[in-house]
Amino acid sequence: MNNPITHASFTIERKLNAPPSRVFHAFSDYSSKKNWFGGPPEWTQGESSLDFREGGRETDVGGPEGGFVSTMHATYHHIVQDERIVYTYEMLLDGQRMSVSLSSVELEPDGNGTKLTLTEQGVYFTSEDDVEGRKEGTEGLLDALKAYVESN
Questions:
Q1: Domain carrying residue 82
Q2: pTM, two decimal places
Q3: Is residue 1 part of a domain?
Q4: Rounded to whole angstroms, how far apart are CA atoms 118 and 80?
Q5: Do residues 117 and 105 lie in contact, with contact meaning Cβ atoms separated by under 8 Å?
Q6: Could you tell me which of 151, 124, 147, 148 has the C-alpha nearest to residue 135?
Q7: How far is CA 104 from CA 14, 45, 115, in A?
Q8: CATH code at 59?
């Protein structure tokens, strides 16, 4: 029997002490993104790619050595330089689709920094993946982004 699906959304805001151009670059440049986007340090990195353009795709695979494999496949739908990124992505665990999400990242000048607003609408297919865990993981990624853009 299939698990029932769950629909949920969340919004996270961050004030970053870096201009929108630096924050946008951290999303759009492969080597920059690899400095802040990923699993915990003990995870092994698998396949990884970034084709940052409308219609482009991103893949990130990893997991603990000898453990489960987490896979993210994203497609970029709408990009406005230094202002907005809209993408969809699916998460898989050991090849099983766990969720599909629509996300937007909005960047607004805020003094010398940036107000970042990330909104995600998700559909979760299993009990192992839920909005609380996804929000917590996304907050951790945005904390890593903040540390990265503020140190460069």
A1: 6-151
A2: 0.93
A3: no
A4: 15
A5: yes
A6: 124
A7: 14, 25, 13
A8: 3.30.530.20
Structural domain includes residue 94: yes
Phi, psi of 25 (to 5 degrees): -60, -35
Enter the tokens of residue 63.
Answer: 């997991």
Task: Name, in order, each residue with C-beta under 8 angstroms of 78's C-beta and a sequence gap of 6 or more.
Answer: 54, 84, 85, 86
Read off the pLDDT band of 130 (50, 70, 90).
confident
Work out the average pLDDT over 125-137.
Answer: 88
In the structure encoding, which two tokens stand for residue 28, read together? 């759009």
Using one digit for the tens of pLDDT, what is the confidence trace for 17-73?
999 999 999 999 999 999 999 888 889 999 999 999 999 999 999 999 999 999 999
Distance CA 150, CA 68 (A): 32
Q: What is the mean pLDDT of the chain?
A: 95
